[in-house]
Every structure is written in C-alpha cells, then in structure tokens.
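The protein record minuted underneath.
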Amino acid sequence: MGLVKALTNSVFSYIGDMWEDYIYCDSLDNDVLVKKGKKRQSGGAGNNADENVITNGSRIAVNAGQTLIVVENGQIIDFTAEQGGYEYVKGVEPTMFCGSFGEDMKVGIDRIKTRLKFGGIPSNDQRVYFVNTKEILDNRFGFGEVPYRDSEFDLTILIQGFGAFSFHITDPILFYENVCGNVAEQYNKSTIIGQMKAELQNEMLPVLGKLANSGLHYDQLPQHSADILDILKENLSHKWKEERGIELMTVVFTSIIPDDDSMEKVRQMQESRVYSDNKAMLGARVGAASANAMESAAENPAGAANGFIGMNMARNSANIDVAQLMQDDGRQQPASGGNTWTCSCGMVNTMMFCPKCGSKKPEPKKCPSCGFEFPLELSAMKFCPSCGKNTEE
C-alpha cells in the first residue's frame, strides 16, 4: 500500500470526471494544525461509502504548506511532504516522499519501515490527514516579575515583557504520534498553544539570567531579540523539536521594561549618579529645595521664625555648603543684570532668599526727592544719579 505520483505539482482539475474517490483538503489557516481529509465522490460505481476506508486507486491532492500522512488503524503507513497529485495503490510499497523534511523525519521513516517489515496490522480503518507545515504566526505571550541583575547599577530588578512568537511543525510524524493522534475532524492550535506559552514563559528566567551574567544592561534587552531566540531554541529543543516535532522560529518583543517599583529604584540611582558626578548640579538642586522651603517657612502658621529655625537646623545637620557646591570646579553662577544681589554673607544670589544663610533679598533704595530706584549694585551710592539729591539727609 503506497502513494504513487500521478501529477506533479498540480491538483486534479479533472477529478470530478473520474469515478475513484478524490481526497482533498483546502488551504489550512493559521489556527488549524491538522485536518482530516474528506472524500469528494462523483457517484461512480467504484466509490466506497465508508469514510474511513480508502478505495484502491483513489486520487489525493496535496497543496503547498501541507504534509499528507496515511494512517491505518492508528499507525502511519505512508506520507508525502511534496506538493502534487497522488494515487493510492494497495499493491505497491510505501513511497514516503519526504520533500524538504528528509532529515527531520528520518527517525519516523525508520519506525514505519520496521513496522511494515513485520507485516503491520490488518487494514480496516484508513484515514488521510493533512498537517499544516506553514509558519504559525502571531502567538502573543508575556512574562512578568523575572529577576534581572543589572550590571550598570549592580541592582536586582524585576523585568516584565510582552511580545509574540511563531513556530512550525518540522516533523509531522512526531507531531501526529506524540501530540494529536487520530482526531475526528481537526486539531486546532488552541489545544496546545496554552502549554507552549507556559513553557516559553518558564524558559525566560534562565534566558534572562544568562544575559545578565554577560553584563547586558536591562535597557539593552530589546536590541538582543536574536540572542534571546537562539537561547530559547536551544533550551526548548528537546521538549519541542525532539518530542513533538515543533520548532520555534521567531520571537519579537514589543516591550521589555522593569516593573513600577524597579523603575523608581533605577530613576533614583540615575539621579544620584548625576549629582555625584556634577556637584554644581547638586548645589543647584539643594538651592532650589532651600528656596522652596523658605517660601513655605514664610507661610508657616506657627510663625515664620519657627519655620526658618527648623529649616536651618535641617540644613546644618546635613552639613551642606550650598555656595561651595554651586561654585565647585571653578563654576560661578552667572550674573543676571539688576536681579543679582550680594548677601551680607558674601553669597552672590539671584533668588529671593540667600540659599547659604537664609537672608531675604533687601528692598531696593529709592531717592526721597525724585523717586529714582537704585539698582541693588548701586544702593551704596550717597547721591541720586537722577537729581543729585543727597539720599542720606
């Protein structure tokens, strides 16, 4: 019993005019992995009415992206992975056209030949199945709270990610024998995809651990999808390819990011690094915080004096010299024209309160005669430059 090529790389457009059974399967969509072939009969005298008995001389058409397997009493007796038209002849040996699946299906072929050598089993139930060997796309998955030791900050953070993967059936014989078996009509992707996603998510822990040990920073992970795919293929090879005849093809990540708590830790570490590398920026940050604290102290319902006392105690306990920080590395705060004023402590300021001692910016000096307002840097002048009046009389 075997398959004989009847018309290479073509379906039987003329089959409706012949009396033998015609077994065919339309193109398999992305959600169908295996489908049982159906007979199409023209009503001739030679037709066998039993759906599970293949008439001698029946025509079978195989489309692109399909592998045909012939099953007798639950065991595969022949198959073809080559597109074209075939005739089922009971008087010939199994032909087993492997197509491009020769190496992957070698073990299955040896098992079939061994079984047939010892006589097989009596034929009373014969079925034809079509296996979808196209790439099965758009299988979305995600993972969360996977520990990742980031070498940039020497910090363990929790990584979460989302993406999609694709796979294809590389050994239809293994897949039939170990996964789907004699299905009544068809075997859908939904039956196995949940298990595949769980196994893929489980493998992300050792994969990310391996990348972390290589010194890869967490924000570089999306750029290394190819490395992640190679490691996943290697880790899943035994469970998927060798036991089920399935191979992972692609993995694409839409995002790989830390969770909210880890992101906040990273943000704080980055901010600390900036201030430790640039003391002038730290001085500006402390100065701005001091100014905000002064404004709040001035509005203290218990009295502005109490507010300033508390603020100064906090600053002094931290031993922060804001002026020194802001002028570190020889950097001076830029002058800003008439808005610049020099405090009694010697600090040059542009803010309302001196960030070094907390003194308030002095009110501008006015001429009592003409009302001219002296710039702060000219407030020590004795005579009005507008009317010449002695301002100290």
